[in-house]
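pinned: reference chain
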Amino acid sequence: MGKAKLPWVGWVALPVYRIGSPRRKGVGATMAPRWRHLGRFTAATFTPVAEAQGIRLDLERPEQLPAVSVDPGRIAQVLHNLLSNALHHSPAGGVVTLSAEADGAEVVLAARDTGEGIAAEDLPHVFDRFYHADRSRSHQRGGVGLGLAIARSLVVAHGGSLTLIEQPALRGVPNTACTEAFAFLFQSLGRRVVGFASPPGAPDPFDVDAVQTALGACQIAGPALVDLYAWRWLYQNPDADAAALRDTVIRLAAEVWDRHYRAHFGPDRYHTLGAYPHMVAYPLYLPDYALGQIMAHQIRSHMRGRDLASETRRICAIGRVTPDLWLRRAVGAGISPSALMDDAAAAVARMG
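pinned: its structure tokens
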């Protein structure tokens, strides 16, 4: 059995510069250039290499970062090493992301990829001099195993730290709607994941999923609308008490039911759409359920005929972009209910 491998992130933490802070030996006296300059230069250097390997290289640009006192050339050398490793271990179609963010008293630079990962037993040794986690591939590459060791020593000279950390599976997913999409996706693909085939003569599982997802999205869209309208009302009435909120939710539930559901299901004297416990207690969470159902179907459609594991890793590492852009990069189209409703209608026609 092969080694179990973990996705990783190269994590560089540099102390924020404070007036009066002592300068360390070997650290440049000038303040570091802004991240957009150093990051853009580093990304531009590696973009041709990434494109030649069929890998997308993304650069996340924060609006602002606190100042750090560094030698720009040395930190660029560290980033070059991390990106070289990330590209080396990423397959064609993968994504490598270079990012920066403030984290308390530190500025954190990170390089993460969607590659094969590192075996858990190799992680404690990756900074050892002359160590190769994969000797066969490193021999082909021609390295001697000093890159990460040198990179760490450069970061330590700046008073910082360089570590490799395990990357959570959904770190590259923008928000709750996207995580809900994957929850719904794997609920529907459970039988496929464990290798169970559909019984002879059974409807196509994709058709069943399309109909169930459409019904689920329509069902939760009502409470989601009530939730949105309730929060709009709360912002307009910041001094409202609990009784006023209760009366408003009941009124909104009736209005949404009459507008979207009454023609199909008749009157609702119980105000069902206002009964969801997630409402208000978990602000604006219910709309993520509706969006999650729609996005789950778009991802499920994309997954047909593709390897589920590798596509899941790729999509879940796209990064913290807007959900619509995230889905465009994931499946080639933005968020839209059209595919779900069209597939559900076709499925109903086939199942008769």
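why pinned: Confidence is low (pLDDT under 50) at residues 1-7, 17-33, 135-144. The longest strand covers residues 95-103.
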